[in-house]
Amino acid sequence: MKQYSPVAAQEDFLEILSAVHQLKETILITPTDERDEHAAVVLPLQEWQALSELAFLEAPAAPIKQNSRINLTNLRTDQVEWG
Fold first, then answer.
1. pLDDT at 69 exceeding the cut of 90
2. pLDDT tens digits, residue range 4-61?
3. What is the phi-psi region of residue 2: left when phi exceeds 0, alpha when psi lies from -120 to 50, beta otherwise?
């Protein structure tokens, strides 16, 4: 993975886009203060879609509501139409 400073990324922007598009490279742009939480990543669309799908698949399932179950205790089979 190539790494650029913000200034270098501005200067080489077309080269970065070419590398991402044609070579499927991932580019890391790190701020000059080297704080990772301010960094940015440029990656191919297919890689982004794959990561998004993986994140969706790994997300926890929505909780099941208690009231969503069918109450069978008061069900009378003589009142069910079986035909």
1. no
2. 999 999 999 999 999 999 999 999 999 888 778 889 999 999 999 999 999 888 878 7
3. beta
pLDDT of 77 over the 70 cut: no
As a whole number of angstroms, the distance between CA 42 and CA 3 comes to 10
Q: What sections of the chain are H helices per DSSP?
A: 6-11, 13-23, 45-58
Amino acid at 71: N
Q: What share of the chain is helix, strand, coil (3-state, %, to 5)?
A: 50, 10, 40
Reduce the DSSP state of residue 10 to 3 states and report it: helix
Q: Token pair of 65, please?
A: 């509501």
- From residue 9, alpha-carbon distances to 2, 4, 50, 51 in Å are 11, 6, 25, 24
Q: How far is CA 70 from CA 29, 61, 66, 67, in A?
A: 54, 21, 10, 8
